[in-house]
Design a protein that fits this description.
The strands form two sheets. The protein has a six-stranded parallel β-sheet with strand order 7-6-5-9-8-10, sandwiched between helices. A four-stranded mixed β-sheet has the order 1-4-2-3, sandwiched between helices. Helix 1 runs parallel beside helix 2 and helix 5 packs parallel to helix 9. It has two domains: 69 residues, 60s Ribosomal Protein L30, Chain: A; 156 residues, Alpha/beta knot (3-Layer(aba) Sandwich). The chain is elongated. Strand 5, helix 5 and strand 6 form a beta-alpha-beta unit. It is of the alpha/beta class. It contains nine helices and ten strands. The chain starts with a strand and ends in a 5-residue tail after the last helix.
Amino acid sequence: MDGFAVWGRNPVKEALRSGRDIEKIYVAHDTSFPKDIAKLAKERGVKVQRVSRKRVEELAGTKKTQGVVALLSPVEYVSPEHLFEETIKRNSFFLALDHITDPQNVGNLLRTCEVLGGVGALLPRERSSPINQTVVKASSGAVFYLMLAKVVNLARSLREFKDMGGWVFSVEKGGKDIREFEIPFPCALVLGAEDKGVSKNIRNLSDEILTIPMKGKTGSFNVSVAGAIAMWEAVRRSLR
């Protein structure tokens, strides 16, 4: 099983009604999706994805799914405002994960964030890895000590953080050498998907683009490695 799953129409409906944080609902292509569940999912902002019946059964670990399975989050999400307020209060940092879909990378990033004293992470609702068992395992349980917030529009939320007095720094090629830049707190460190990097609109609103220098021929780091380096550079002066 790839997540914390409930299956069947009534259980999924009750999970939605209960207010539990739900990562995603999967519906088999060959089944009709009940309108009441669709309505509740829309009201709650839960993404619904059509997949094969085989995939639904794999997620549920049973064939008795009625064609519907929901992945429950193992964590309780907070509002972005709460994440921002706590980051400012602690004069610390949080991660903004710009459409990183690999759960192993997300888990690794969250583990490093927690170890180095970060507050948590801001995640987009769309095109982002769910917080599932793989993330929990890769983070070594760090997810349970962090504040996680999901938002519809990452750029808009980061602008709100800036309006509250925070700084936003994108870790991306073509910017200032991260070794020579003293990163001020409170701040958000933005990391983008390996194939596309940080989105243009987020780069444009960033206070600075920070670049990790490289000498090798491959030309890039895994995003979780880049994130670890950036987080260390952000906190190392405060750890002296």
